[in-house]
Write a structure and sequence with these properties.
Number of helices of chain A: 12
Structural class of chain B: alpha/beta
CATH architecture of the largest domain in chain B: Alpha-Beta Complex
Shape of chain A: elongated
CATH topology of the largest domain in chain A: Spore Coat Polysaccharide Biosynthesis Protein SpsA, Chain A
Shape of chain B: elongated
Order of helices and strands of chain B: EHEHEHEHEHEHHEHHHE
Oligomer: heterodimer
Radius of gyration of chain B: 25 Å
Helix content of chain B: 40-55%
Distance between the termini of chain B: 45 Å
CATH architecture of the largest domain in chain A: Alpha-Beta Complex
Number of strands of chain A: 7
Largest sheet of chain A: 7 strands, mixed
Largest sheet of chain B: 7 strands, mixed
CATH class of the largest domain in chain B: Alpha Beta
Order of helices and strands of chain A: EHEHEHEHEHEHHEHHHHH
Radius of gyration of chain A: 25 Å
Distance between the termini of chain A: 37 Å
Number of domains of chain B: 2
CATH superfamily of the largest domain in chain B: Spore Coat Polysaccharide Biosynthesis Protein SpsA, Chain A
Number of strands of chain B: 8
Number of helices of chain B: 10
Helix content of chain A: 40-55%
CATH topology of the largest domain in chain B: Spore Coat Polysaccharide Biosynthesis Protein SpsA, Chain A
Strand order of the largest sheet of chain B: 3-2-1-4-6-5-7
Structural class of chain A: alpha/beta
Strand content of chain B: 15-25%
C-alpha cells in the first residue's frame, strides 16, 4: 500500500489521452510492482477536452497509489510537469510522456543508475520510432545546438522519461517550455547528469502534438537559456561580453572616421555609425548592471542551489538516511 | 422570478468613477429590481473623493439605506481598482457589477443569473442595440481587434454589467483601466466567461465620440493586456518578434548596399542609407536584449509565479 510519503513519484502529464491513460497506468504498475519501491503515480490532466478525466477518475477509485491533478484549463506540457513536481511527495521523481511512447519498464534501470550517485538520469531514445525528415533530423540538429550553446551535451533533450532527485527539481524555476532544457537548467546547480538508452515506441493513439513550426520558438528559448544560465553565474559578464561586439565595430569605424578627417572628406556618415555602435555598446553594458540588480533582488540564489548538490564528508558517523548519497560521496 | 435563481448572498458593486447619470434615481431603480433577486443583498458604491458633489449625494443616499456601503477613495484610481476596493468589503458569493449609468434594461438583469450555469463570469452583451451605427462600429472595431490579438472572442467587452463568482475576484489581479479586460485576465487563471444578450437601455444610446487621447489610451491598454496575457512569462517571444523583424530589414538593406558597392561600385561610406540600416540593426538587437532582461526577471523571480491553476486533486489524501 502507498504511504503518505512514498519514495518514488511517477509524474505523467496527460492532454487528450483517453485511450492511452488506462494502458499507461497498467504498464507503470507492471514495471514497478515487482520491485519493492514504495511509489505513487501522479496524472496531471492538462485541461483535456476528451474523456481523460473520466477515465482517470475511474482509475483513482481502484488504485490508492494514483492521484489525478486536474487543471482548470489547458496550460501546456511544462506547467503540467511543474504541477506534478510541486504536488509529488516522493524523494525521487520520474517524468514521462502520456502517449505511451516511453516505456515504464525502463524506470527500475534508471533508478539503479541514479543510485550510482547522479542527481538526474535522462532517457535517450536511441532507436526512435519517428519520421526521419520531420522529426529525427531536426531533433539531431536541435540537440547538437542545445548541447553546444548550453555546454551540456545531451543526445536527446526531447525525451520526457527522466529520473531526478526531488529536492533539486523542486527548487528549480520551471515554466514556459523549459521541459526541453531540463539538463541544461539543472546544470546551474552543478547537477550530475547521466544519460541512458531507453526504449521508444511509435505513437499508438491520437495525433502527434508537435510540428516543424517550433524551430523559431526553440531558437528564442535557447537564447533565453543561454542568457539566464550566464546571468545566474555572473550577472554582469554576459551582457559585458555582448557589448564587446558593438564596441569593436565602433572602434573599427573610428579608423574610417580618422581617415576621412585626414583626407578632408565628408565625415558625417562615418561619425554617425561610430556613435551609433558606441551607444549600443554602452546600452548593452548598462543592461548587464541592470541584470546584477535583478539577480540580487530575485529569489533564485546560486548559493542555495550549490548546497543541494554538494557532498559533505564528515569523519563522525553520519545520520544521513540517504544511503546512496553516502556511498557516492565515499567514492569520490 | 427569484425561484429559479439560486444565489445565497449577492453583492452589487457600482464603481462611480467616470461617467455618472442621475445617481439617486438610478440607485432607486437598481435597488427596486435587485432586491427581488436575492434575500440577502448588499449594495456597495465606490466613489472618488475628488468628485465632491457626487460624494455628498451618495453620502445622503447611504444614510437612508442600511444595506448600502459607500467607499470613498482619495483619488480616482480607475475602475478596476474601484471594483477591487468594493470587493474587499463585499461578502456575497456572487458579485453583480453595475455601471453608474444605465447600459442595459434593468428588468432583464435576471437573465444573467439564469444563464450563468457552470461559467464563472456572465458578461452582459448589449443586444439588441438601440444606439447609432457609429457607436456600434466603435464597439465592433474594438472587440474585433481584441479578438484578432488575443484569440478570444467577446462581442461587447465594454459593457460593465457583469455577474461574477466571488472566487474570481479574490484571485484575479487587475488595476487601473483593466476592468473591461477582466474576462481575459481571469481566463489566464482558468476562469471561463459567457456572454448573455441584454437589451440596451435607451439612456445608453446617445452618440459617443471621445477625444483622440481616449482612443490612444484604449489602444495602449489593449497592447498592455495582450502583452500581459499572451507573453506573460515569455517576454523574449514578444520583443524577439519585433527585434528580429527589425534586424531582418537591416540585413536586407545592408546586403543591397554591399551588392551596389561590389557590383556597381557605388561607395558605401557616404550614403545616409548606411546609417538608416545600422539604426535598424541596433534597434533590433536592443529590443532582443530588453527581451532577455525580461526573461532574467522572470527566471530569478519565478518562485511565486505559478503558471498553472489546479481545479482539484482527485485520489488519495493524507
Amino acid at each position: 500500500m502507498s504511504t503518505p510519503s512514498p519514495t518514488l513519484s511517477v509524474i505523467v502529464p496527460l492532454y487528450n489521452e483517453e485511450e492511452s491513460a488506462m494502458h499507461l497506468h497498467k504498464a507503470i504498475h507492471e514495471a514497478l510492482d515487482p520491485t519493492d519501491i514504495d511509489y505513487e503515480i501522479l496524472f496531471v490532466d492538462d485541461g483535456s477536452k476528451d474523456l481523460t478525466v473520466t477515465v482517470c477518475n475511474k482509475l483513482t477509485e481502484q488504485d490508492p497509489r494514483l492521484r489525478l491533478v486536474q487543471f482548470r484549463r489547458n496550460y501546456g506540457q511544462t506547467p503540467a510537469m511543474a504541477a506534478g513536481i510541486d504536488n509529488a511527495r516522493g524523494s525521487i521523481l520520474v517524468t514521462m510522456d502520456g502517449d505511451l511512447q516511453n516505456d515504464p519498464s525502463d524506470i527500475p534501470m534508471m533508478l539503479k543508475k541514479l543510485e550510482e550517485g547522479y542527481d538526474i538520469v535522462v532517457g535517450w531514445r536511441h532507436k526512435r520510432q519517428d519520421k526521419l525528415i520531420s522529426r529525427k533530423i531536426p531533433s539531431v540538429i536541435a540537440n547538437k545546438l542545445i548541447g553546444s550553446v548550453t555546454g551540456v551535451p545531451i543526445k536527446d533533450n526531447g525525451c520526457s522519461l527522466k529520473v531526478y532527485r526531488a529536492e533539486i527539481m523542486k527548487e528549480m524555476p520551471f515554466y514556459n517550455e523549459m521541459h526541453r532544457f531540463i539538463p541544461a537548467l539543472l546544470s546551474v546547480s552543478g547537477t550530475r547528469i547521466a544519460e541512458v538508452k531507453v526504449k521508444h515506441h511509435a505513437r499508438q493513439f491520437g495525433e502527434s502534438k508537435y510540428g516543424l513550426s517550433r524551430v523559431y520558438k526553440v531558437l528564442l528559448d535557447l537564447l533565453t537559456m543561454k542568457t539566464i544560465l550566464s546571468v545566474v553565474n555572473q550577472p554582469t559578464a554576459w551582457f559585458g561580453k555582448l557589448s564587446l561586439v558593438p564596441f569593436m565595430i565602433s572602434f573599427l569605424c573610428s579608423f574610417f572616421l580618422a581617415d576621412k578627417l585626414v583626407s578632408g572628406d565628408n565625415i558625417v556618415i562615418s561619425a554617425a555609425i561610430t556613435l551609433i555602435f558606441l551607444s549600443f555598446g554602452a546600452f548593452m553594458l548598462s543592461l548587464g548592471f541592470l541584470c546584477e540588480l535583478i539577480y540580487q533582488k530575485g529569489d533564485l540564489k546560486i548559493n542555495r542551489l550549490a548546497l543541494l548538490t554538494a557532498r559533505v564528508l564528515r569523519s563522525s558517523p553520519n545520520t544521513n538516511s540517504n544511503n546512496f548519497q553516502q556511498e557516492a560521496s565515499n567514492e569520490q | 422570478m427569484s425561484n429559479n435563481i439560486s444565489v445565497k448572498k449577492l453583492s452589487v458593486i457600482v464603481p462611480a468613477c467616470e461617467r455618472t447619470d442621475e445617481t439617486g434615481m438610478l440607485f432607486a431603480e437598481y435597488k427596486a429590481y435587485c432586491d427581488q433577486l436575492s434575500n440577502d443583498i448588499e449594495y456597495i458604491y465606490v466613489v472618488s473623493a475628488e468628485r465632491t458633489e457626487l460624494t455628498a449625494e451618495l453620502k445622503e443616499i447611504q444614510a437612508q439605506n442600511s444595506d448600502m456601503k459607500l467607499i470613498i477613495l482619495n483619488r480616482n484610481y480607475g475602475e478596476a481598482t474601484a471594483i477591487q476596493a468594493g470587493f474587499s468589503h463585499a461578502t456575497g458569493d456572487y458579485i453583480l457589477t453595475l455601471p453608474p449609468y444605465k447600459q442595459v434594461k434593468t428588468d432583464e438583469l435576471s437573465k444573467l443569473f439564469e444563464n450563468i450555469g457552470d461559467f464563472d463570469i456572465a458578461l452582459a452583451k448589449r443586444w439588441p442595440r438601440l444606439d447609432s451605427k457609429s457607436n456600434q462600429y466603435q464597439t465592433r472595431i474594438f472587440n474585433k481587434t481584441l479578438q484578432k490579438l488575443s484569440g478570444q472572442k467577446y462581442d461587447d467587452i465594454g459593457c460593465g454589467v457583469r455577474l461574477i463568482k466571488s472566487e474570481v475576484l479574490k484571485e484575479v489581479f487587475m488595476y487601473g483601466d483593466q476592468w473591461r479586460f477582466l474576462p481575459l485576465l481571469s481566463y489566464q487563471i482558468g476562469y471561463h466567461s459567457t456572454e448573455i444578450e441584454l437589451t440596451q437601455a435607451g439612456e445608453d444610446s446617445h452618440k459617443r465620440f471621445y477625444s483622440p487621447g481616449v482612443y490612444l489610451r484604449r489602444l495602449l491598454d489593449l497592447l498592455t493586456i495582450i502583452f500581459l496575457t499572451k507573453f506573460n512569462k515569455k517576454p523574449l517571444r514578444f520583443f524577439g518578434l519585433i527585434g528580429s523583424s527589425s534586424i531582418f530589414i537591416s540585413i536586407i538593406g545592408l546586403l543591397y548596399l554591399t551588392f551596389e558597392k561590389l557590383v556597381l561600385d557605388i561607395g558605401m561610406s557616404d550614403r545616409p542609407a548606411l546609417v538608416l540600416y545600422s539604426l535598424f540593426l541596433v534597434l533590433g538587437c536592443q529590443l532582443i536584449a530588453i527581451g532577455l532582461v525580461g526573461e532574467t526577471v522572470i527566471f530569478t523571480h519565478s518562485k511565486d509565479l505559478k503558471e498553472y491553476r489546479i481545479k482539484k486533486i482527485i485520489g488519495q489524501r493524507d
